[in-house]
Amino acid sequence: MDWDQDWVGRPVYYDRHGAPMTLRQWARQLEDEAYRHIARDVIGPEEPLDPAPLITVSTVWVGLNSDWRSDEPLTYQTIVVGGGYDASGLWYATEDEAREGHRRVVDELRAAQRSPTDASQLREAPANTEPPRSRGRHARDD
Questions:
Q1: pLDDT tens-digit readout, 83-92
Q2: Region Disordered: start and end of each range (predicted)?
């Protein structure tokens, strides 16, 4: 069995430039936090005594194609931890898209904190349900 390709022969692992890589190369890079890390922001309440939760927005290179339905591998993920959008995530194909998507998510969450409205890319997850998963440019649910 070839662990570097999927069942139809497409690469499974990709570097930050979108070039295919082997399982061993991917595992080495995954251990390197400087290679994985793209951006991280913590959004907190404006007032020190405000009980609003801290929200962390983190964007990382995952290196695995998360969209087998597309020819374009989605190997970057932005995830929101905390607040009403907890566990919401967006996927991207390139580092530039991931950086731009991260910035948009942070801007929208900060704006929503000042004036509570739905963020356009993220939907608030109802209690006790699995959060929606959307893909940056592809904006479709699994």
A1: 888 888 999 9
A2: 107-142
